[in-house]
Amino acid sequence: MNGVPKPRPPAQVAPAEAPGIRVLTTLITSVVIVCALYFGRTVLIPITLAILLSFLLAPLADWLRLLRIGRITSVIAAVLVALLVVLAVGGLIGVQIAQLASSLPRYQATIEDKINTVQEKTLGRADNLLTRASHALKESGQHVQDNAVAQPDNPDADVRPLPVEVHEPSASPLDLAQRFLSPVVNPLATSGIVLVVAIFILLQRGDLRDRMIRLVGSRDLHRTTTAMDEAARRLSRYFVAQLSMNAGVGAVIAIGLVVIGLPGALLFGVLAALLRFVPYIGSWLAAAMAILLAGAVQPNWTMMVWTLVLFGFVEILASQVIEPVLYGHSSGLSPFAVIVAAIFWSWIWGPIGLILSTPLTLCLVILGRHVDRLQFLEVLFGDRPALTPDENFYQRILAGDPDEALSQAEVLLRDNSLSAYYDEVAIKGLRLAYNDMARGVVTELQLKRIKQATLDLVEGLEDVEDAPLARVPATEGPEALPHDVLAGGETLVPTVDGTEAGGRVPVLCISGRGELDDLIAAIAVQLLGKHGLEVRHAKSESFARDGRAVEQLELAPLVCIISFDAEYLPFYLRYLIRRVQQRVPGATIVFGLGREWVHGATPGAPSVGDLGNANLVATLRDMTEACVLAAESQFGARRVPVSDDQRARDAADDEAADRRAEREQHLEDGDPAARVINTPV
């Protein structure tokens, strides 16, 4: 029948999934891929370098094509420009190294003096100790040698070893060429392969893209195209931004070293730019070499200190200020991922793998973002939060850590209102706890932690102001909202605190029977109080046996009934609404928080016909707006901001009243659970 709500499903706890053949297959596949990367590095490294070089040269080739010089010509021109830049940088490094090598003998005396100074002030005592120990060992060895000489002469002692000379044949020109050119042949061959493959990739980008789409999945063209576009966009932007950033850092370092007076300033500027491609340690390697040379050039320590200051200032400014703005926090990798990737790829491919670790891992993260079976890569190495704000909130209160939950709230409240935080984070997080309680997986200790942590969080947000509500013109009145949003009686019941004279309107907030309903009631009390309403809290079960609760109900023109059970419309909530309507016919009733209420009942949904003229709300923001609008328009009251003095007086009065009520209740029936809980705002 439509009038009877659907019963709740029985509480069930899903058993943990046992590892199956899918996990074993994934593990074997991962091992095979790692082995292929390791043993096939001779072939894979040039191809990978060519692919990444094509991403770097693609914007330049596209720009040259805009000049109408042809596709092939633009690609070859882009590759030649890159080759000329590499040759120019290599020639500059060679010239600077030759100049420094010719100047090193002049710095020998300075280096020796500084080594002696460091040795005297730091290692002098240890050196003296080692010298004494060596003298003692020599004396002991001399004593043993004298004893050996005193023994009878060995007849074979006069036999002297024959001198042996080894004559190598003179090396042929072929041997000399092989000896000196072999260290250069492999890098040159690899560079040639990289350039040739990069040229063909740039020439056939469209064809290779279509073949990759067909290979990966032509059935889902949208997902495949999105993944490839994202990878190309992120990699191109990453390489261009990093190249520009490193070139700028190298230029600043070179200019700074020229001002300081360090020889080879251009060399160290180029090294600083190139080594910054190595994550974390590259720039400091260049700094170490420059600092050592500065210490060798000048007898005092001034140049060495200024060089250290220059590298430290430029690196901190670049990494902490400029790079976040330039990259826009959009590289897609977490700092943990960068470190792990550097370790893994340097183990697989050596120094080249260390340089390529960041772009390769970025490709894997993008792949995991669009392929379901590889989603763990995006979770482990991506920069997106692993948990949503409501999941993080629930995890923290479940662990009994309100401090971290409060820290998260402070961050979210910078861009959101207090009511939005409660609706989107706290209430959704408590609903996760509500669902776990329905499954029977929350223990008593965990429930206690949830309650205490949530109350501590609400108390910590007491001083945070909520965003102002949307104002409704006085001429429109309640008709400005839909009929099922604000409904109430026609007569104004007598109220306390001079409601008719423009005072604060009393609101009675009634929580349901659920274990977590008192928590959302505490949040509702805080929000309503911040908007100038006088709010008191009562439990639903107290109306069956406490006359004072009924008396408070008769004095409240606004009644909020709030519970997580509202989604199922249980009998006790429907009965409570009918009883409130019978007891106080003119009261405005606000009921939630269950679901996105719709006007009229949908087929198969619990009937809302038994709720009468109660205002159905789905969020705390809607509840606050309904109560404030009813207080302003229906009862002619104005919201009065509550001052600190008024809060203190109300707290003192309520505390005294609570003590008297508790003593009276103990005298009557000794049942403290039946008394109404009055919460001052």
TrEMBL record:
<keyword id="KW-0813">Transport</keyword>
<feature type="transmembrane region" description="Helical">
    <location>
        <begin position="76"/>
        <end position="98"/>
    </location>
</feature>
<protein>
    <recommendedName>
        <fullName>AI-2 transport protein TqsA</fullName>
    </recommendedName>
</protein>
<feature type="transmembrane region" description="Helical">
    <location>
        <begin position="277"/>
        <end position="297"/>
    </location>
</feature>
<dbReference type="GO" id="GO:0005886">
    <property type="term" value="C:plasma membrane"/>
</dbReference>
<keyword id="KW-1003">Cell membrane</keyword>
<feature type="transmembrane region" description="Helical">
    <location>
        <begin position="243"/>
        <end position="271"/>
    </location>
</feature>
<keyword id="KW-1133">Transmembrane helix</keyword>
<feature type="transmembrane region" description="Helical">
    <location>
        <begin position="21"/>
        <end position="39"/>
    </location>
</feature>
<feature type="transmembrane region" description="Helical">
    <location>
        <begin position="184"/>
        <end position="203"/>
    </location>
</feature>
<feature type="region of interest" description="Disordered">
    <location>
        <begin position="641"/>
        <end position="681"/>
    </location>
</feature>
<comment type="similarity">
    <text>Belongs to the autoinducer-2 exporter (AI-2E) (TC 2.A.86) family.</text>
</comment>
<feature type="transmembrane region" description="Helical">
    <location>
        <begin position="45"/>
        <end position="64"/>
    </location>
</feature>
<feature type="transmembrane region" description="Helical">
    <location>
        <begin position="304"/>
        <end position="322"/>
    </location>
</feature>
<dbReference type="InterPro" id="IPR002549">
    <property type="entry name" value="AI-2E-like"/>
</dbReference>
<keyword id="KW-0812">Transmembrane</keyword>
<feature type="compositionally biased region" description="Basic and acidic residues">
    <location>
        <begin position="641"/>
        <end position="669"/>
    </location>
</feature>
<feature type="transmembrane region" description="Helical">
    <location>
        <begin position="334"/>
        <end position="367"/>
    </location>
</feature>
<keyword id="KW-0472">Membrane</keyword>
<dbReference type="Pfam" id="PF01594">
    <property type="entry name" value="AI-2E_transport"/>
</dbReference>
